[in-house]
UniProtKB/TrEMBL annotation, chain A:
Residues 106-152 form the SKP1 component dimerisation domain. Pathway: Protein modification; protein ubiquitination. Part of a SCF (SKP1-cullin-F-box) protein ligase complex. This is SKP1-like protein. Belongs to the SKP1 family. InterPro entries: SKP1 (IPR016897), SKP1-like (IPR001232), SKP1-like_dim_sf (IPR036296), SKP1/BTB/POZ_sf (IPR011333), Skp1_comp_dimer (IPR016072), Skp1_comp_POZ (IPR016073). PANTHER family: SKP1. Residues 10-66 form the SKP1 component POZ domain. It comes from the Eukaryota. Involved in ubiquitination and subsequent proteasomal degradation of target proteins. Together with CUL1, RBX1 and a F-box protein, it forms a SCF E3 ubiquitin ligase complex. The functional specificity of this complex depends on the type of F-box protein. In the SCF complex, it serves as an adapter that links the F-box protein to CUL1. Keywords: Ubl conjugation pathway.
UniProtKB/TrEMBL annotation, chain B:
This is F-box domain-containing protein. SMART domains: FBOX. Residues 14-54 form the F-box domain. InterPro entries: F-box-like_dom_sf (IPR036047), F-box_dom (IPR001810), SCF_F-box_component (IPR050796). It comes from Lupinus angustifolius (Narrow-leaved blue lupine).
Length: 159, 426
């Protein structure tokens, strides 16, 4: 997973799916568990390609890893709330996929929790559409499944 | 590896493991709904590993259990989400309760609703006294999940020789034993009356759901001690109590540490016992299950005796209510003759049985009598993550709380730490 780049400091070069190259410090790169083993074998001229990560997502991930306050968890909460505040549902989903692929420390929980809030109390139809899930139940199977827990379908929020 | 630009669509189907992560943060009731999304979600939601993770992460204490009495005194239990009671989704509390009524659990005669743990509720059936020629009391326990409406198998029968014991003299608690991954039920059998002399016959029995030996094992050496267990006992989370050095002390009182600890600490680690002393004075003590059963550091007698030293003296008319996050709700119902019998008055305290701390008491809740029975308010409380406050909800039911007549059901909410200091109508 390497191609030569101009040797600079000991920063790691990451290449996104849309062809942008980011230079990050080993401390940052080490928090992406998926690429951790690649970092050991690489020198400053190595470029690691990230097939599932777009530049926008990597920018956000680096913003998170660099900006996350080290100590006080209350500051972390505030920082995390701010971090996800302005993201659209589509951006959140994309970022979750990128974060899931890179296995970024702490960020998987935050993103999964944030996406969970988007579908809280939504209808089955809404959630299928939201995640692009194909319904593989037959109508009879689905009706039976709904029948089994009919009380779970009261009070659904509007889509 | 060169430019391995896979054609993965970023907005397309999420990977299973990410779905796993997302769903683990949702309330249980939604998981029941989302079983119908597709086959792989359905199997994921019933996966034991998923269920374990979900128990850790899902919102705690999301349901209020109400007991209603219908025609001919038939009782039933319903569970309502706090969320739907308060946010009027889709409509008024009366409607929410009416909808849930449709799925009510009909309680058999002599069946009582006991403590809860991990979202499960302990149902105790006490058989009438005339069993086997009055020689034995018989009890049977089941666990009920009010969200999925599923039952555990029923426990083996617990037979207790009468020999002067009062009926209803067994008190039950239960908790999840992480080591064996089973639910354990503990029954404390108390002797008739509160006199010191015959308390020697107080016994502790344990039943494990899923254990191979399908029986109530006797635990030896339970206190020979002037205690009487009363109706009130709840299981609560354990919290911290170490004092090692100054830096630990400040760490341990850090609000953020407390939050993390609440997430991670063992759930349901304490049994709350209510003791009745001289002149009928009641007090509450908490013992950890661990110290009661594993005899650490010493015998259960010592454990209880030590804890009695730190007992909470209960005022008259104060009862121990539900628990959440290791806090226990104490409800004081003032006698009826308040303000010329026109109002019922209630006051709520939260109590941490481990730190022995009380937050401020609540404002008074005044309820016009108008034909309501006394003790017609049911209290529940939970921790609201958003506002980071504890909220108490009181559901006021009409006289008789009948299933057929719900019109005058009212819901009031009190928020600890709020400036308004009053019970707000929801």
């Amino acid at each position: 997973m390497a191609e030569k780049a101009s040797p600079s400091s000991n920063s790691i070069s990451l290449k996104t799916v849309d062809g942008k190259i980011f230079k990050v410090s080993p401390a940052i790169a080490n928090q992406m568990l998926t690429i951790q083993p690649l970092i050991k074998d690489s020198d400053s001229s190595t470029i690691i390609s990230l097939p599932d990560v777009a530049a926008f997502h990597l920018t956000k991930i680096i913003e998170y890893l660099e900006g996350k306050p080290a100590a006080a968890p209350s500051a972390v909460d505030a920082f995390e709330a701010q971090f996800v505040k302005d993201l659209s549902p589509e951006e959140l989903k994309g970022l979750l996929i990128a974060v899931g692929y890179l296995k970024v420390n702490g960020l998987v929980d935050l993103m999964a929790n944030t996406v969970a809030k988007l579908i809280e109390n939504k209808s089955v139809e809404y959630v299928r559409k939201f995640f692009g899930v194909v319904n593989d139940f037959t109508p009879a199977e689905e009706a039976k499944c709904r029948q089994e827990h009919a009380w779970a379908f009261d009070g659904v929020d509007e889509d | 590896m060169k430019n391995h630009c896979a054609q993965t669509s970023l907005s397309g189907v999420l990977l299973d493991e990410l779905i796993f992560e997302i769903l683990s943060w949702l309330p249980a009731i939604l998981l029941l709904r989302f079983r119908c999304i597709c086959k792989s979600w359905k199997s994921l939601i019933s996966d034991p590993n998923f269920i374990k993770l979900h128990l850790q992460r899902a919102p705690k204490n999301a349901n209020l259990i109400l007991t209603l009495i219908g025609n001919h005194g038939k009782r039933s239990a319903i569970s309502c989400l706090f969320r739907s009671l308060l946010h009027h989704k889709p409509s008024s509390p009366t409607t929410v309760i009416a909808e849930n009524l449709h799925y009510r659990l009909k309680l058999m005669k002599h069946t009582g609703i006991g403590v809860s743990c991990n979202g499960l509720i302990c149902l105790v059936r006490a058989f009438p006294r005339n069993f086997r020629g009055n020689e034995f009391h018989k009890y049977r326990v089941r666990l009920w999940n009010p969200v999925t409406k599923l039952f555990s198998k029923r426990s083996a029968d617990l037979l207790v020789k009468v020999e002067g014991r009062a009926f209803d003299s067994a008190e039950f608690g239960f908790w999840y034993d992480k080591l064996t991954e089973t639910y354990k039920v503990v029954a404390v059998l108390v002797d008739n009356g509160a006199s010191v002399e015959n308390l020697e016959r107080t016994e502790v029995r344990v039943y494990g759901f899923g254990d191979n030996d399908d029986c109530w094992r006797k635990i030896h050496g339970f206190p020979v001690f002037p205690i009487q267990l009363h109706q009130d006992r709840k299981c609560v989370n354990d919290t911290f109590n170490w004092c090692i050095c100054k830096s630990w002390k400040s760490l341990i009182s850090d609000p953020n540490f407390i939050k993390l600890h609440l997430q991670r600490a063992p759930k349901n680690a304490n049994l709350i016992l209510t003791l009745i002393g001289n002149h009928g004075k009641r007090s509450a003590i908490s013992c950890s299950f661990r110290s009661l059963f594993h005899h650490k550091p010493s015998s259960p007698t010592t454990v209880v005796a030590e804890n009695v030293h730190y007992k909470l003296k209960l005022m008259k008319h104060t009862s121990i209510g539900v628990s959440c996050n290791g806090m226990i709700c104490l409800v004081r119902a003032f006698p009826r003759n308040f303000r010329g019998n026109k109002f019922h008055k209630y006051r709520v305290h939260l109590w941490n049985p481990v730190t022995k701390l009380f937050p401020k008491r609540s404002a008074d809740l005044l309820v016009k009598v108008e034909g309501r029975v006394f003790d017609s308010a049911e209290f529940g409380f939970w921790y609201d993550k958003l506002t980071e406050t504890y909220k108490v909800v009181a559901v006021l039911v009409d006289n008789g709380a009948s299933v057929e007549n719900l019109e005058r059901t009212e819901v009031r909410v009190y928020r600890f730490g709020d400036n308004t200091r009053c019970f707000v109508s929801a």
